[in-house]
Every structure is written in structure tokens, then in C-alpha cells.
Amino acid sequence: MKVRISLLIFFLSSILIYSQNYPHATISQIQFVPDSLLSQGVEGSLRVGDTVQVTGVVMVPPVVNPTFDRRPVMWAGARWQTYLRDTNYANTTWAGINIIQNDTSFGAQGTLMDLLDTAQVVTITGVVAEFVSAGQTGGQTQINVLTNPLMPVQFVGSKPNRGNPVEITIADLNTGNLPTGNILSGEKYEGMYVIIRNVITSDRNTSTSSSAPFAINDANGNKIFIHDQSGYFTKRTHKLREWEPPLDGTTIQYIRGVVGQFSSTSSLPTRYVIRPIFPDDLLIGQSPAAITNVRRNLDVISPNQAVTITATIVDNDPGGQVSEAKVRYRVNGGNLIDLPMTLGLNNLWSATIPAVNLDSALVDFYIWAKDNDGMVSTNPADTVRNKYFYLVLNRPLKIQDVQYSPFGSGFSAYNNYRVTISGIVTADTSDLQGDGNQISRRVHMQNGEGPWSGITVAGLAADPLVRGQNVTISGLIRESNSNTVIDSITSLVVNSSNNPLPNFATLSTADISTFPNGTISAEQWESVLIKYLNVKVTNENADGQPGPGGGGNSNFGEILVADNSNVNTRVELQEGNHPYHNLWVANLDSVPGNIRVRLHNSFTELRGILFYSFGNYKLVPRKIDDFVGFSNSLDNNTGYSINNYNLNQNYPNPFNPITTIEYQIPFEGFVEIKVFDILGREVKTLVNMNQTAGNYKVIFDASSMPSGVYLYQINVNDYQATKKMILMK
Question: Residue 62, preceding bond cis, omega within 30 degrees?
Fold first, then answer.
């Protein structure tokens, strides 16, 4: 602790030296976007790329306790995160912002970010950035704390508390997709501490991998999802307590939290999310009966076997009782049949589904319950996409049976049941060595070819397995980060070695695309050997700008590629054992034999295993032979068709008084390129004509204009993009 205090004194004494280098900006100046741009769908900060100092009130400490418990409160991986609020609590719009420190290594801890606590008033130096999650059309403005050069936090003072939240409604956040001509009314609340009252819950998700545990709804049909960034409101590994999301239909007296944007339109189909911070940010009212521990009595079901379903059903409201419960089931998609459940000991209800004599029959079901107040609940809450189900099989179980998930949830019929399956090892730990951080080495096996034929083998017992071995494994089926795996292995038998691997399934990039988790066209290929033909790199960093991660940029070793379908999908370079990389860290270019993948590079074949992680399906090549026919040409005019619309950053930038703007269009269309001032007023039209597919450049002469920040925007077909440029005379 004495070392930390000494460091604090040293860095505080250094602040006056460094702080003079960067201008101060208010949170409002960073966050504000004029209505003229919001109405066009532009919601990013106009200060992106600027290094600034910003002063605000700390809303949440980055870690639980800097000395005794350094777990994060708001989960951001290995990074530190907090939110700042304007020091004037009367400001109710454009007054909150996300603060991120990407580098938390020992050398970067001199920022003292980990010492922040609620209600402190601090000044932080960093780079304004816009974080865009996969599948989103909009991003979240944040300040990336400057660690090179190291800029310590300036502790200015403190407030008595974090202040009252701003009262809003769900409708204030404009939660749907942006309608033509509408204004993003919720953008002014991004990063702000708000409160929403008197709502009802829905979309309960108790998965240990879900980032959206529930949603709230108002009386007018508006809905917004809750994001589990806080460790107090999650079942994921960053949890700080044991917590269950409220049952669907629960009344919420109020929920407080920070407004943000996150993830893909699959798990969070709203533009904005609410992030509650501390346990007292949620006050629950009346709730329906809780249905938990749904189980069947048999792991594997054969014809002529009846199946008993049990569930624990409890009404936790004062004086509450469960008045009725039933299993609602059907066979092969037929009519629903209601089976009354019987109450036994310890709130355990049960009913028996009669034997089904059809081989390969699919039986799906859910539990329905009503309490003495007439409130109804079901488990699962989504009785269309997340049904329980089982197969009736007159043969040994196969990987295809275990992986099969016909309703779009991604869950196996055998989730949390023990099975025995056989297959050929298609990737071992020498192939997939992990990303060195959150994705560890792993093994995959496959039974034959085609959809649903692959599975992940998890746990240390799988480490000795080698590609080409035919193995029989007994273990527990579970979902791990939305991948079906066999784990807790009790028996592993190697039947033979050096077997040929199954053939790669040839897919189009459109088959996988950027589909949400559980999408059947992609889910059926999870853990299967697949390949794409004649693909081009359409983005050399799927999560940020080209080049190393850190310093405001996110790079997780993933690129986007597309074949002649012109549909992008992800490829993960970081986990395999091969020399290809996208420069996710700076030293990779200096390693002998390494090969950097850039925009417009191409492959005649890209092969590997389909995997799901962090909201995306992705092809993961194993070793160098999964990359076939690599071409490192950077010119997409020499033999390559233009794959995507793109508006490039002008150059030079800043400029005086002439700059060049380049852009690409893959299809013929009417092109408009206009220049706006910082207030959104149009000042010049650069292009206003029909153009064929191709690469173009236009010169902007600003001789007659004053110095300042300008925006340029392209509109062609359904594509629109806006970028910032600086005229400095």
C-alpha cells in the first residue's frame, strides 16, 4: 500500500507537466450531435480521434476494491471501465460518458484509474472513440484513457453522492430501428444515469452466457433490454453475487442504470440498453410463480419409454400459492397436449409424457403455471424459440442428435444430461491453441459429414487427443459460451488412430454471414470442418481500425471476408497455430515467417472449424494448410471486383486548403457527396451524378471557407456514411 501511495504522490506531481498538452472538453461538447445529423442516422461524436481532458463525477469504481478485491464492477474484459457524469447534476442531456482503459498492464497502472470511487470528481485525459459492437448500426462514444504517454487521473474533489438519476421512459430512447426521417432521440441520454419506473419484465434468459438477462416493457408496447455489464446483474463469469433475472411478468417499481449500446441485433434487438450498476438499482414488485429445475427422468429415450417431467414451482409473493401447473407437449409438431402436473414434496411438481413408439420422433414441451393472483408464467419464457425437447431413438446416439437444435435456441436436447458419442478428432490442442486470453485451447470431433456432425470436447481429459483418432467419449453435454460441448468426461476410449478426416463442407459466406446465435443455417455447422471458396478480405480488422489493439483501437485477431455472394463473415486468426495475422499486436510483423493479412488480399480456399464466441460465428483455421491460394495484392482494381461500399478518410487531414476524398461503390447508382459544417449545415456539394461500380476520388477545395471541423457524407443506393475532416489555415 505504501508503494501505491508513493506512486500516487509521484504521478500527481507530474500532472502539471503533462496536462498542458491537451485541451479540456466538457462531456456535452464530446457527446453532442446536432439534430440535423441525428435525423440522418449519424450518432457518433464529432470529436472522434481528438485527445482531450474531461472532468466529471465517477459513477462506479472500476474495481470492487483496489487493495483487497480487484474484480471489475462493470465488465470490460481485461480493461478498466467507469462512467463519468457532468459535475452539474442539473444537466439532463448529453451529460454522461463511458471511460475505458484498454491497457491495464503493470506499466500502465500509473493512470490510477483503479483507485477511482463513486462520487469522486476527476479529470481524465484520453482519446475520443466510437465503439461499435458486431451487428450494430450505431456505436457508443467513449474516452480511451491515455497510457502512452501515461496520463494519471487528476483527483479534483468529491460530491456527497452520485446524484439522482434522470427520469425517462422507454419511449424516450427510441428503441426500434431508426425510421426514415426520425431523430435518434435517445442519443442524448447515452452514458447517462437514468431511472425508468413502473414496467413489466419479459424475455428472461438464465443462460450463463447471456448478456441480455431480461427486458422491460411499458403499457404502450415499448421494450428495451437490460445489459449485464455490472457484476451484480449477471450469471456470466464476471458475476459478483449469485443472481437470477426476474421472472417474465414481474412488475418493476423502478430500474436505474446507465444508457448504452451493445452487441448484435440478435440478443439485443433494440438500439439502446440499460445497464444497472449496484444491487439497489432494481426494485421488484409483484411476480408470478417461479419455475426452475425442469428435468426429465431419462437421459436417452427409446421407443415405448414414458418420460416423467419434474419442475420446482414456487410463488414467492407474500401469501402467494401455485394454483395450477401443467406440461404442454406435442409430438413431431402436432397439436399441443396439456398434462396436469401433481404437487409432491418440496414444491416439486411432476407429470408423465406417454411413451412414443415412432423412431426418431421429436417431442417438445414447456411448463405452464398460474398462481392464486391469476399471474401466469412459463419455462422457458420464450415457448417458440427455446422449447425443451427430446428425441425418441431406436439406435445408439450420434453427435448429430446431440447437436441438433431445431427451434433456434442453439441448445441441445441433451443439455445437462450424460451421453456417450463417437467420432473422429478434427482439431487437437496443437491446432487450436486459444487467443492467450479468454479463449483457451480446445479439441473438436466429428461424426461423418454434413450439418450437426461436429462437437467441442472440453476439459483437461481431451488434451492428449490427436487429429485423426477415432474416439468414444462419455460425458456431460452443456452450453459453454453458446457452444455445445461434451465435458466432465467419465470415459474416453481411443478406438483407432490415423483415420482420414471428414471432407470440408463447402459453404458460402452468406450461409454463416453475421447471423445471431442459434440461427439454424449457421448453428448446424458449429464445430464442423467447413471451407469458403474464392474469398477476399473486406475488412482487415472486424472490430476496429487496422493495426494493433490498444490506445483506443480494438483488435481481436478477426477479419471479415466475402465470396462472390458479397456477404461478409468472420475469420478468427488468433486462435490457430499458423503464421497469418492482422497485426493485433505490433510485434507480429517482425516475427520471421509471419504473414500479415490486409484489405483486398484473397484466398482460393479458407478452411477450418466453425466456432461461436463473443456474439459471432467465425471460421477458425487450424494450421497453415487451411489457407490455400493466398494473394497479397492490395489493389482491388487488378482482377478483383469491388465488394463493399466504402468512404475513405480524406487525405491529408488536417488540410489547407485542398484535400482528396476517395470512395468505392460495388454497384451502379446515383452518388451524392456533400460537405457540412459542425452545426450540420450544408456548405458544398462535391458529387451529384450517376456512377458505375468502381473506385473514385474527388478533390475538395476549401479556399473560401474558415478553419474548423467539417463533415463529409456519401449517399448512394441504400448506403450512407459520414466522416470528419479538419481545415486548418
Answer: no
Provide the grid cell at 204: 428472461
| 490: exposed, middle or buried (Cβ count in 10 Å: 0-12, 13-18, 19+) | exposed
Most confident of 17-21, 117-121, 717-721: 117-121
CA atoms within 13 A on the CB side of 342: 4
Give 464's contacts (C-beta < 8 A, 6+ positions apart): none
pLDDT band, residue 437 (cuts 50/70/90): low
Q: Residue 463: which residues within 8 A CB-CB, separation 6 or more?
A: 429, 441, 443
Length in residues, the chain: 729
DSSP state, residue 529: E
Instruction: Give which of 450, 468, 452 is closest to 506, Cα–Cα.
Output: 450
Cis check: omega of the bond before 654, within 30 degrees of 0: yes
The pLDDT, as a whole number, for residue 135 is 43
Among all chains, which residue has been given the C-alpha cell 466456432? 611
Q: How much is the average pLDDT of 252-267?
A: 77
Q: What do you get for the CA distance between the two ends of the chain, in Å?
A: 51
Is the pLDDT score of 300 beyond 70? yes
The CATH architecture of the domain made up of 290-392 is: Sandwich (2.60)
Distance (Å, whole) CA 365 – CA 388: 5
The residue ranges of every structural domain in the chain are 290-392, 646-727
CA distances from residue 535 to 141, 301, 510 in whole angstroms, order as listed: 33, 44, 12
Spatial CA neighbour of 697 closest among 651, 639, 643, 656:
651
Amino acid code (one letter) for 661: I
Q: What is the spatial distance between Cα 665 and Cα 698, in angstroms, rounded to a whole number?
A: 14
CATH node for 646-727: 2.60.40.2550
Give yes or no for a contact between 534 and 602, defined as CB atoms under 8 angstroms apart.
yes
Q: How far apart are CA 630 and CA 566, in angstroms?
A: 19
- Element spanning 16, H or E: helix 2-19
3 state SS of 391? strand
Sequence-distant (6+) residues with CB within 8 A of 482 are 207, 209, 410, 517, 612, 613
**Burial (CB count within 10 angstroms: exposed 0-12, middle 13-18, buried 19+), residue 462:** buried
pLDDT at 203: 87
DSSP assignment of 81-139: EEEEE-S-TT--SS-EEEEEE---SGGGGGG-GGG--TTEEEEEEEEEEEE--TT-SS-
| SS3 of the chain: helix, strand, coil, percent, to 5 | 10, 40, 50
- Same topology between domain 290-392 and domain 646-727: yes
Q: What does the pLDDT read at residue 3?
A: 39
How confident is the model at residue 54, as a pLDDT?
97
pLDDT tens, residue by residue, 71-93:
999 998 889 999 999 999 999 99
pLDDT over 70 at 263, yes or no: no
Q: What is the tens place of the pLDDT at every residue in 40-75?
A: 777 788 898 899 999 999 999 999 999 889 999 999
Q: What is the pLDDT of residue 438?
A: 63
**Would you state the pLDDT for residue 268?**
40
- CB distance 375 to 406 below 8 Å: no
Least confident of 300-304, 423-427, 463-467, 596-600: 596-600
